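Quick check before the chapter quiz. The format below is the same one you will see on the exam, so make sure you can read both the input and the output lines.
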Amino acid sequence: MSNPPAKPAHDRNAVNRYTDQVVLVTGSAQGLGSAMAERFAAEGAIVAIADVNEVAAHELARRLEKEFGRTCVSHALDVTSSQEVSTWVESVANTHGRIDVLVNNAGIIRDNRIEDIDDRDWHAVLDVSLSGAFFCTRAVLPHMRQRNYGRIVSFSSMSWRGNFGQANYVAAKAGIIGLTRTIALETARQGITANAIAPGLIETPMLASMNAAAREKLIAKVPQRRTGQPDDIAEAAAYLCSPAAGYVSGVVLDVDGGLGIGSSIR
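Here is the expected output.
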Protein backbone atom coordinates (compact mmCIF):
# COMPACT_ATOMS: atom_id res chain seq x y z
CA MET A 1 0.00 0.00 0.00
CA SER A 2 1.36 3.39 -0.97
CA ASN A 3 2.22 5.94 1.65
CA PRO A 4 0.34 9.26 1.86
CA PRO A 5 1.94 12.30 0.22
CA ALA A 6 4.68 13.86 2.27
CA LYS A 7 3.63 16.97 4.18
CA PRO A 8 5.43 20.20 3.36
CA ALA A 9 7.81 21.64 5.90
CA HIS A 10 6.47 24.43 8.08
CA ASP A 11 6.17 27.70 6.19
CA ARG A 12 6.15 30.47 8.75
CA ASN A 13 4.58 32.83 6.22
CA ALA A 14 1.75 30.48 5.22
CA VAL A 15 -0.41 30.59 8.37
CA ASN A 16 0.10 32.73 11.43
CA ARG A 17 -2.90 32.04 13.61
CA TYR A 18 -0.90 32.43 16.82
CA THR A 19 1.06 35.62 16.31
CA ASP A 20 1.98 36.93 19.77
CA GLN A 21 -0.31 34.46 21.53
CA VAL A 22 1.14 32.75 24.60
CA VAL A 23 0.91 28.97 24.36
CA LEU A 24 1.74 26.58 27.22
CA VAL A 25 2.51 22.95 26.41
CA THR A 26 3.27 20.35 29.09
CA GLY A 27 5.36 17.26 28.43
CA SER A 28 6.73 19.03 25.40
CA ALA A 29 10.45 18.19 25.34
CA GLN A 30 9.97 15.32 22.89
CA GLY A 31 7.45 13.27 20.94
CA LEU A 32 3.99 14.70 20.35
CA GLY A 33 4.65 17.60 22.69
CA SER A 34 7.68 18.82 20.76
CA ALA A 35 5.79 18.50 17.45
CA MET A 36 3.03 20.72 18.82
CA ALA A 37 5.47 23.22 20.29
CA GLU A 38 7.14 23.46 16.89
CA ARG A 39 3.83 23.98 15.12
CA PHE A 40 2.77 26.79 17.46
CA ALA A 41 6.16 28.47 17.13
CA ALA A 42 5.96 28.19 13.35
CA GLU A 43 2.65 30.06 13.48
CA GLY A 44 4.03 32.93 15.53
CA ALA A 45 3.31 31.92 19.11
CA ILE A 46 5.34 32.59 22.23
CA VAL A 47 5.71 29.00 23.43
CA ALA A 48 6.30 27.94 27.03
CA ILE A 49 7.81 24.45 26.94
CA ALA A 50 7.44 22.53 30.20
CA ASP A 51 8.84 19.09 30.95
CA VAL A 52 10.51 17.12 33.72
CA ASN A 53 13.50 16.79 31.38
CA GLU A 54 14.96 20.26 31.84
CA VAL A 55 17.88 19.77 29.45
CA ALA A 56 15.75 18.52 26.57
CA ALA A 57 13.19 21.28 27.13
CA HIS A 58 15.92 23.93 27.03
CA GLU A 59 17.47 22.49 23.86
CA LEU A 60 14.09 22.44 22.10
CA ALA A 61 13.33 26.03 23.11
CA ARG A 62 16.66 27.25 21.75
CA ARG A 63 16.18 25.34 18.49
CA LEU A 64 12.70 26.75 17.92
CA GLU A 65 13.85 30.29 18.69
CA LYS A 66 16.63 29.95 16.14
CA GLU A 67 14.43 28.32 13.50
CA PHE A 68 11.33 30.50 13.75
CA GLY A 69 12.57 33.69 15.37
CA ARG A 70 9.95 33.52 18.11
CA THR A 71 10.33 33.64 21.88
CA CYS A 72 10.37 30.13 23.34
CA VAL A 73 10.95 29.57 27.04
CA SER A 74 11.64 26.30 28.82
CA HIS A 75 10.72 25.27 32.33
CA ALA A 76 11.49 22.22 34.44
CA LEU A 77 8.04 21.19 35.64
CA ASP A 78 6.53 18.32 37.59
CA VAL A 79 2.82 18.57 36.77
CA THR A 80 1.93 16.40 39.77
CA SER A 81 2.89 19.31 42.05
CA SER A 82 0.12 21.89 42.20
CA GLN A 83 2.59 24.37 43.70
CA GLU A 84 5.07 23.96 40.85
CA VAL A 85 2.26 24.32 38.34
CA SER A 86 0.96 27.50 39.96
CA THR A 87 4.43 29.00 40.10
CA TRP A 88 5.03 28.14 36.42
CA VAL A 89 1.75 29.62 35.21
CA GLU A 90 2.17 32.81 37.22
CA SER A 91 5.73 33.21 35.95
CA VAL A 92 4.64 32.90 32.32
CA ALA A 93 1.66 35.23 32.82
CA ASN A 94 3.74 37.86 34.62
CA THR A 95 6.49 37.76 31.99
CA HIS A 96 4.30 37.81 28.88
CA GLY A 97 1.15 39.47 30.17
CA ARG A 98 -1.33 36.82 29.03
CA ILE A 99 -2.10 33.15 28.54
CA ASP A 100 -4.04 32.18 25.45
CA VAL A 101 -3.60 28.43 25.09
CA LEU A 102 -2.93 25.48 27.37
CA VAL A 103 -2.10 22.04 25.99
CA ASN A 104 -2.21 19.32 28.65
CA ASN A 105 0.05 16.76 27.01
CA ALA A 106 2.10 15.31 29.90
CA GLY A 107 1.47 11.62 30.49
CA ILE A 108 3.14 8.31 31.34
CA ILE A 109 2.30 4.61 31.14
CA ARG A 110 2.81 1.81 33.66
CA ASP A 111 1.02 -1.10 31.97
CA ASN A 112 0.04 -4.28 33.78
CA ARG A 113 -2.93 -6.47 34.59
CA ILE A 114 -5.19 -5.01 37.27
CA GLU A 115 -4.04 -7.39 40.01
CA ASP A 116 -0.41 -6.60 39.21
CA ILE A 117 -0.68 -2.80 39.28
CA ASP A 118 0.72 -1.65 42.60
CA ASP A 119 -0.34 1.51 44.40
CA ARG A 120 2.68 3.44 43.19
CA ASP A 121 2.04 2.73 39.49
CA TRP A 122 -1.67 3.43 39.86
CA HIS A 123 -1.10 6.83 41.42
CA ALA A 124 1.83 7.72 39.14
CA VAL A 125 -0.25 7.44 35.98
CA LEU A 126 -3.33 9.16 37.43
CA ASP A 127 -1.22 11.92 38.99
CA VAL A 128 0.63 12.85 35.79
CA SER A 129 -2.13 12.49 33.20
CA LEU A 130 -5.26 13.49 35.12
CA SER A 131 -4.23 15.47 38.19
CA GLY A 132 -1.59 17.29 36.15
CA ALA A 133 -4.20 18.38 33.61
CA PHE A 134 -6.48 19.53 36.42
CA PHE A 135 -3.74 21.51 38.19
CA CYS A 136 -2.68 23.25 34.96
CA THR A 137 -6.25 24.04 33.94
CA ARG A 138 -7.12 25.41 37.37
CA ALA A 139 -4.06 27.65 37.27
CA VAL A 140 -4.67 29.16 33.82
CA LEU A 141 -8.41 29.73 34.04
CA PRO A 142 -8.29 32.99 36.04
CA HIS A 143 -6.01 34.50 33.38
CA MET A 144 -8.25 33.33 30.56
CA ARG A 145 -11.45 34.49 32.28
CA GLN A 146 -9.91 37.92 32.81
CA ARG A 147 -9.52 38.35 29.04
CA ASN A 148 -12.65 36.38 28.03
CA TYR A 149 -10.56 34.16 25.80
CA GLY A 150 -8.78 30.85 26.04
CA ARG A 151 -8.21 27.47 24.46
CA ILE A 152 -7.56 24.31 26.47
CA VAL A 153 -6.71 21.01 24.79
CA SER A 154 -6.03 17.92 26.90
CA PHE A 155 -4.76 14.57 25.75
CA SER A 156 -6.84 11.46 26.07
CA SER A 157 -6.13 8.31 24.05
CA MET A 158 -7.92 5.77 21.91
CA SER A 159 -7.56 3.55 25.01
CA TRP A 160 -10.12 5.56 27.00
CA ARG A 161 -12.79 3.11 25.81
CA GLY A 162 -11.02 0.32 27.67
CA ASN A 163 -7.86 -1.62 26.94
CA PHE A 164 -6.35 -4.82 28.27
CA GLY A 165 -3.51 -4.29 30.74
CA GLN A 166 -4.01 -0.53 31.04
CA ALA A 167 -6.48 0.01 33.89
CA ASN A 168 -4.55 2.97 35.32
CA TYR A 169 -3.93 4.58 31.91
CA VAL A 170 -7.52 4.03 30.76
CA ALA A 171 -8.90 5.49 33.99
CA ALA A 172 -6.73 8.58 33.53
CA LYS A 173 -7.61 9.05 29.86
CA ALA A 174 -11.33 8.50 30.43
CA GLY A 175 -11.07 10.99 33.28
CA ILE A 176 -9.57 13.53 30.87
CA ILE A 177 -12.74 13.35 28.79
CA GLY A 178 -14.99 13.96 31.79
CA LEU A 179 -12.76 16.79 32.96
CA THR A 180 -12.74 18.35 29.49
CA ARG A 181 -16.53 18.32 29.19
CA THR A 182 -16.92 19.89 32.61
CA ILE A 183 -14.40 22.64 31.80
CA ALA A 184 -16.29 23.31 28.56
CA LEU A 185 -19.54 23.77 30.47
CA GLU A 186 -18.07 25.94 33.22
CA THR A 187 -16.29 28.29 30.81
CA ALA A 188 -18.78 28.42 27.94
CA ARG A 189 -19.76 32.05 28.55
CA GLN A 190 -16.22 33.42 28.87
CA GLY A 191 -14.94 32.76 25.36
CA ILE A 192 -12.98 29.72 26.55
CA THR A 193 -13.15 26.32 24.89
CA ALA A 194 -12.00 22.94 26.16
CA ASN A 195 -11.48 19.90 23.94
CA ALA A 196 -9.65 16.59 24.02
CA ILE A 197 -7.56 14.76 21.44
CA ALA A 198 -7.46 10.95 21.42
CA PRO A 199 -4.43 9.80 19.38
CA GLY A 200 -4.19 6.36 17.84
CA LEU A 201 -1.00 4.64 16.72
CA ILE A 202 1.37 7.54 16.21
CA GLU A 203 5.05 7.26 15.32
CA THR A 204 6.65 7.99 18.68
CA PRO A 205 9.68 6.50 20.46
CA MET A 206 7.31 4.25 22.46
CA LEU A 207 5.77 2.77 19.31
CA ALA A 208 9.18 2.44 17.66
CA SER A 209 10.41 0.39 20.63
CA MET A 210 7.88 -2.38 19.98
CA ASN A 211 9.01 -5.59 18.31
CA ALA A 212 8.13 -5.82 14.63
CA ALA A 213 5.53 -8.56 14.96
CA ALA A 214 3.54 -6.77 17.66
CA ARG A 215 3.74 -3.51 15.75
CA GLU A 216 2.43 -5.02 12.53
CA LYS A 217 -0.39 -6.73 14.41
CA LEU A 218 -1.55 -3.38 15.76
CA ILE A 219 -1.23 -1.58 12.44
CA ALA A 220 -3.34 -4.29 10.79
CA LYS A 221 -6.25 -3.23 13.00
CA VAL A 222 -6.12 0.37 11.75
CA PRO A 223 -8.61 0.89 8.87
CA GLN A 224 -6.04 3.03 7.02
CA ARG A 225 -3.42 0.30 7.58
CA ARG A 226 -0.74 2.74 8.63
CA THR A 227 0.47 4.69 11.62
CA GLY A 228 0.03 8.42 12.09
CA GLN A 229 2.76 11.03 12.39
CA PRO A 230 3.35 13.56 15.19
CA ASP A 231 2.44 16.27 12.67
CA ASP A 232 -1.06 14.76 12.45
CA ILE A 233 -1.49 15.51 16.14
CA ALA A 234 0.05 18.96 15.79
CA GLU A 235 -2.41 19.77 13.00
CA ALA A 236 -5.36 18.77 15.17
CA ALA A 237 -4.12 20.77 18.15
CA ALA A 238 -3.37 23.80 15.97
CA TYR A 239 -6.97 23.86 14.80
CA LEU A 240 -8.65 23.25 18.16
CA CYS A 241 -6.50 25.92 19.82
CA SER A 242 -7.09 28.51 17.11
CA PRO A 243 -9.54 31.42 17.11
CA ALA A 244 -11.38 29.66 14.26
CA ALA A 245 -12.46 26.85 16.62
CA GLY A 246 -14.42 29.15 18.89
CA TYR A 247 -17.67 27.21 18.40
CA VAL A 248 -16.07 23.81 19.07
CA SER A 249 -16.04 22.84 22.73
CA GLY A 250 -16.38 19.70 24.79
CA VAL A 251 -15.49 17.35 21.93
CA VAL A 252 -13.13 14.38 21.75
CA LEU A 253 -11.25 14.37 18.44
CA ASP A 254 -10.00 10.93 17.43
CA VAL A 255 -6.81 11.15 15.38
CA ASP A 256 -6.36 7.45 14.75
CA GLY A 257 -6.86 6.49 11.11
CA GLY A 258 -10.34 5.19 11.93
CA LEU A 259 -9.24 2.83 14.71
CA GLY A 260 -11.78 4.26 17.16
CA ILE A 261 -14.61 2.95 14.99
CA GLY A 262 -13.75 -0.56 16.11
CA SER A 263 -13.08 -2.13 19.49
CA SER A 264 -10.00 -2.51 21.69
CA ILE A 265 -6.75 -2.80 19.73
CA ARG A 266 -5.69 -5.85 21.69
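If your answer matched, good. Confidence is low (pLDDT under 50) at residues 1-13.
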